[in-house]
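Reminder to self: tokens first, then the designed residues, so the page reads top to bottom the way the pipeline ran.
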């Protein structure tokens, strides 16, 4: 994988760049729709390409390993062949998911023992087998096996957890570098900065991650309940340490405001379940602000969901009709709202990229944050 830094904003740390993978190019800043179990929930591949114009989507090691399982995925020739998405894919390593299985997992130096949330079967994830699993899934970018420390946690927990994540990272790199891709294209391993919200730990972790000299770097352990200003402060000084010539991926973020503020702090890649999860309960992000479509006020508003956004779904369906579908809990409601919200998120990061290239990103961001976060 190659990263070309195309422009750094004069008034902020925002960057425009281009990632080139064996499954195609990614223009950054970019938002990556989350496709946990091999599908972006309620969204067809055709809509991902046409309306949403997604460039890369996420899968999750934990879920795909449990269902459909490695033999089915390998038999298909990997996830790209299995779900038909022939552009880039990134898989998270499963660390974050098994840690959220609070009472049915046990952490040790070896790895994490856990019970499947599906059938209670017992499994063990180690840095080594998580690399092997992600080789079988075949994502273009795979994540190191880390512990996402809970928030809040005390300094000693954060320190011990970060140090274990660093030892696990060495084991991930050794295993990954000793194995090949299974399907004839190359994969890249991204390490993940941890350290909770403790500045000295975060600096230590960022320096260790940068030293690994991998093709991209991620910031984990954020968007776990900490205040937004703590998140921004952490990103700011971590990005001063992560190399300029590698993409920076902020995991699990966020609202439109979080994304624009983090772009200004030098983040290039984002993923979050918010646009799809909130869509399923009727929260719409639009170029005019945030709409709770269940609200009575939209019941006879026959205007398109968002006429300035472009894309079939956002202009073909009216607010009144989508409200009706949501109130009836119709399956089509989830589809329309999910495609719309993802179209908005990709539009937003695409606009950010254009304004970074045009040189007026900071002024644009100030106006845009206010506008898109307004509750309508
Ligand atoms: N907020 C998040 C979301 C996903 C994560 N995935 C991994 N592997 N590690 C983290 O710290 C994450 C944090």
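Designed residues (376 positions):
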């Amino acid at each position: 994988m190659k990263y070309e830094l195309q422009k750094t904003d004069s008034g902020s740390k925002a960057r425009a760049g281009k990632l080139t993978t064996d499954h195609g190019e990614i223009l950054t800043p970019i938002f990556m729709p989350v496709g946990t179990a091999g599908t972006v929930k309620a969204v067809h591949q055709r809509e991902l390409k046409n309306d949403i114009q997604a460039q890369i989507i996420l899968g999750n090691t934990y879920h795909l390993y449990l269902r459909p399982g490695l033999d089915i995925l390998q038999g298909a020739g990997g996830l790209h062949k299995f779900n038909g998405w022939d552009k880039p894919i990134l898989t998270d390593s499963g660390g974050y998911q098994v840690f959220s299985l609070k009472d049915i997992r046990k952490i040790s130096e070896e790895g994490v023992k856990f019970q499947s949330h599906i059938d209670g079967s017992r499994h063990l994830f180690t840095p080594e087998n998580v690399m092997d699993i992600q080789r079988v899934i075949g994502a273009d970018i795979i994540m190191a096996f880390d512990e996402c420390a809970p928030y809040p946690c005390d300094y000693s927990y954060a320190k011990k957890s970060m140090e274990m994540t660093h030892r696990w990272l060495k084991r991930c790199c050794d295993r990954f570098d000793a194995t090949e891709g299974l399907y004839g294209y190359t994969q890249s391993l991204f390490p993940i900065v941890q350290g909770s919200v403790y500045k000295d730990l975060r600096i230590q972790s960022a320096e260790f991650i940068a030293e690994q000299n991998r093709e991209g770097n991620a910031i984990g352990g954020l968007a776990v309940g900490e205040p937004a200003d703590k998140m921004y402060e952490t990103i700011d000084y971590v990005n001063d340490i992560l190399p300029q010539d590698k993409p920076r991926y902020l995991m699990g973020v966020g609202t439109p405001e979080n994304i624009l503020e983090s772009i200004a702090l030098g983040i290039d890649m984002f993923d979050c379940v918010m646009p799809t999860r909130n869509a399923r309960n009727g929260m719409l992000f639009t170029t005019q602000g945030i709409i709770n479509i269940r609200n009575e006020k939209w019941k006879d508003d026959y205007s398109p969901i968002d006429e300035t956004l472009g894309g079939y779904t956002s202009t073909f369906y009216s607010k009144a009709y989508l409200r009706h579908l949501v109130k009836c809990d119709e399956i089509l409601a989830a589809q329309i709202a999910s495609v719309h919200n993802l179209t908005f998120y990709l539009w937003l990061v695409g606009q950010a990229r254009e304004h970074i290239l045009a040189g007026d990103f900071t002024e644009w961001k100030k106006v845009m944050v206010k506008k898109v976060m307004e509750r309508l």
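Residues 92-93, 95-96, 143, 146, 148, 192, 220-224, 251-252 surround 2,6-diamino-3H-quinazolin-4-one (CB under 6 Å).
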